[in-house]
Amino acid sequence: MKIIGTGSALPDKQVSNEDLTKLVDTSDEWIRERTGIGSRHISTGETAASLAAEACKRALENAGREAVQVELLLVATCSPEMALPCTACQVQELTGAENAVAFDLNAACAGFLFALNTAYAYLSAGIYRNALIAGTEVLSKIVDWTDRGTCILFGDGAGAVMVEQCGSGGVLGFVQHSDGRRGNVLACGSRPLENPYHGERDFMRYVQMDGREVFAFAVRQVPASIEEALEKAGLEVEDVDLFVLHQANRRIIEGIARRLKADISRFPMNLDRVGNMSSAAIPVLLDELNRQGRLIPGMTLALSGFGAGLTYGACILQW
Ligand code: ACO
């Protein structure tokens, strides 16, 4: 399976660190030093579905394919606009991908990677010949804007890729892992149980995070999963041209680079401009790199997503 097109869409409104100092007791210096983030895009009405649809249209255009040709439409999100229908079906309606089978997948910040691997399984089995895969988030609605520990981290946006079966190259190896025992490290409620038999109780309305635990988990598990995926691909760290990682924060990515003994120049980053967009992070970065002409055919990429669940995984592919 090969990626043949990429696209992305970000809300128009940009919110700088300086803007956040008007909401919470923080500073540009603190945020930049601890996270590497300088600015993020925040929805003023865009939804997970509208952003994903825009990203998908751009990915289709980039791939030179029509929406009606899409056979599988997967959307990774943990901040959908609607509980029903799923975001993928909304995107199907908005893009005109009327022949696709469409459904959502939620693995938090590893969501896009898990969706990519899921498409790979379907395509390898010969069930579908192509797939349109989006990662989309409007995290601004599940973040507590009075909590300086979390509201500074996240941004809204969507990215998408079009993939097709191919004879050689493409995906060379992948791994996925989940550790549900550690779900409390990063969590957010969905909707409270309010029915005639159960009154409202304490409810986790916004994202809660143990930042240090997340940090330690990412720096330990991500390099290990990349190495595991490389082994499956029969490759070494030195063979990787670019490490396209979930853009959680700069210090995490630097920690991963150190563990892999790989120069930080091989780890492209855009989190200074877009913050942490969970499942949208990897496809948005891929689209930026693609449109900048930095992805050259034959190049080896290591993609890795990690986040709440805990979930994490890696995919090695030849561009
Ligand atoms: N501005 C100023 N001060 C702050 C801010 C802020 N925005 N946020 C927290 N502080 C303060 C705290 O209140 C605390 O003050 P105190 O010592 O007086 O109590 C102090 O800074 C240190 O707080 P810590 O939470 O211990 O800060 P830490 O050095 O751990 O940095 C951070 C916090 C940036 C969240 C860090 O833990 C981290 O990077 N963790 C990774 C988490 C992450 O990236 N999550 C993203 C989502 S998960 C994912 O995508 C995988």
Structure description:
The protein has 9 helices and 13 strands. The chain has a 5-stranded mixed sheet with strand order 1-7-6-4-5, with helices on both faces. A 4-stranded mixed sheet has the order 8-13-12-11, with helices on both faces. Helix content is 31%, strand content 23%. Helix 3 packs across helix 4 (87-95). With 319 residues, the protein is of the alpha/beta class. It has helices spanning 17-20, 28-35, 48-63, 87-95, 111-124, 211-233, 250-260, 271-274, 281-291; strands spanning 2-9, 14-16, 39-41, 72-76, 101-105, 130-137, 157-164, 170-178, 186-187, 208-209, 242-245, 300-307, 311-318. The chain has 2 domains: 2-168, Peroxisomal Thiolase, Chain A, domain 1 (3-Layer(aba) Sandwich); 172-318, Peroxisomal Thiolase, Chain A, domain 1. The structure holds acetyl coenzyme *A. Acetyl coenzyme *A binds at residues 26, 30-31, 34-35, 109, 148-149, 152-153, 186, 209, 211-212, 214-215, 218, 248-249, 251-252, 276, 306-307.
